[in-house]
Each structure stands twice: as C-alpha cells, then as structure tokens.
C-alpha cells in the first residue's frame, strides 16, 4: 500500500474511509456517482437454509405402493443462536450486506441486508439490454451479484443472482433490487458478455438475458465443463 501510494507509484492515497466491517467487493456505478460496497460482519451461526430451498415431503401408500400425498416444507430453523454467556464456544458466521456509498462525500446512502448464511462470491457492473424503440436498442447499467448458501457437506448448496440498480429519492440514492433469481447450485462467478449475464453454477456456465416484459432471467445458452 505504501509503495502503491507514493508519488512515483501507480496511485495516490487521498482519503481513508472507515467502514467498521470487512469489505469484499467494490463496484463503481458511474451514472449514480456511487459505489456498491459488499461488506460482512460476524454474528452467531444458525443452520438456516435459503428461503427458496423448499423441501418436498412425499408420503407413499404401503398397500398400492403409489404416492399418497406431496407436501412442501419451508426452510425454517427453530434452533436459536447460542448466547455469548452460554459457557461454550459460539460458532460465528459472516452476515453480508451491500452498501451504496456516494463518491462525492463517501457517505453511505442505503444498505441492503442479505439473507442469513448467504455469501457474496462475485459482483460486476454491466450493461443489459432494455426494450427496443424507434431509436434502436438501449441498455441499462445494473450491478449483478452472485451468492451462495454454504452450510456444510450434508446440505445441498444453493445460490442466487441479484440484479441491483439505484433510484434518486429526496436527493439521496437508494438501492433497488428489481430481480432475484434462485439457483440450484452456488453462483461462484459472474461476468457480462455482450449485454448478457454469464454465471458459473457448479460445473455449468449459464448465459442469461433479462426479459423486461416478464421481469425474469431467461437462459440463452449452457456450457458444461466436462473432463477430457
């Protein structure tokens, strides 16, 4: 850091911003003159699965052998976190949140708290296609965040993609979460390719485009990483 910030180095340190938490990603949003800052802080751990990780309970008929009923079970953890004064070691986990910080005065204008046990693995600013009009095809800047819910070897790891934008209200910028796409696996990396969103999900790379009319992500291509 000292070598980098010297006058003969590649950068110049002008100000230190105290966050009080651990920073992971910084994504600059030029139209809003703001930065999406992904941070985390420690909190007591609970084995809470992803809110969209719904389990199926299948009851079979013993006489006919067919399916008698199928019900869904919401991912609810009834186990409270261990109190700090319990006399045992308290397992800790990172609780992630996304802050929107202005680059004019470096004040935090808004925060987005993510789900319990959700980790951010990637964040990129990219342009996605908007609706076409008489002037042609337009694009919109969005911050794409890829996450995962790692809970151990016995529980299938899920993930999701978040599409974030900003809106100006009362002279302050706010975070707008205009889409959340659940995935069957962890979203380990994300990158923009010609106004499309490429996401690595396990051993598969999925290429998404955003459908503005239906407000959802549509898979345009799949790439499977196999062993040669």
From TrEMBL:
User: Which GO cellular component does the record give, naming just one?
Assistant: nucleus
Query: What is this protein's name?
Result: Putative cleavage and polyadenylation specificity factor
Provide the RSE1/DDB1/CPSF1 C-terminal domain boundaries: 96-225
Gene Ontology terms for molecular function: nucleic acid binding
Gene3D superfamilies (alphabetical):
YVTN repeat-like/Quinoprotein amine dehydrogenase
InterPro entries cross-referenced by the UniProt entry: RSE1/DDB1/CFT1, RSE1/DDB1/CPSF1_C, WD40/YVTN_repeat-like_dom_sf
Natural source organism: Trypanosoma cruzi
């Amino acid at each position: 850091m000292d070598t980098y910030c010297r006058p003969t180095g590649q950068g110049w340190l002008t100000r230190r911003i105290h966050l009080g938490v651990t920073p992971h990603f910084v994504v600059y949003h030029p139209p809003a003159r703001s930065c999406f800052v992904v941070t985390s802080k420690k909190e007591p751990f609970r084995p809470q699965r992803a809110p969209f990780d719904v389990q199926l309970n299948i009851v079979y008929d013993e006489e006919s052998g067919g399916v008698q009923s199928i019900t869904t079970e919401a991912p609810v953890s009834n186990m409270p976190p261990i109190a700090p004064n319990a006399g045992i070691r308290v397992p800790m986990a990172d609780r992630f949140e996304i802050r929107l910080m202005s680059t004019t005065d470096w004040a935090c204008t808004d925060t987005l708290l993510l789900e319990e046990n959700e980790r951010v693995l990637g964040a990129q600013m990219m342009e996605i296609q908007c609706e076409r009009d008489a002037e042609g095809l337009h694009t919109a800047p969005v911050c794409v965040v890829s996450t995962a819910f790692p809970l151990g070897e016995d529980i299938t790891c899920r993930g999701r993609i978040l599409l974030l934008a900003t809106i100006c209200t009362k002279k302050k910028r706010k975070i707008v979460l205009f889409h959340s796409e659940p995935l069957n696996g962890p979203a380990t990396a994300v990158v923009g390719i010609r106004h499309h969103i490429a996401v690595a999900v396990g051993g598969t790379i999925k290429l998404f485009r955003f459908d503005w009319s239906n407000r959802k992500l549509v898979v345009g291509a799949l790439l499977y990483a196999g062993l040669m």
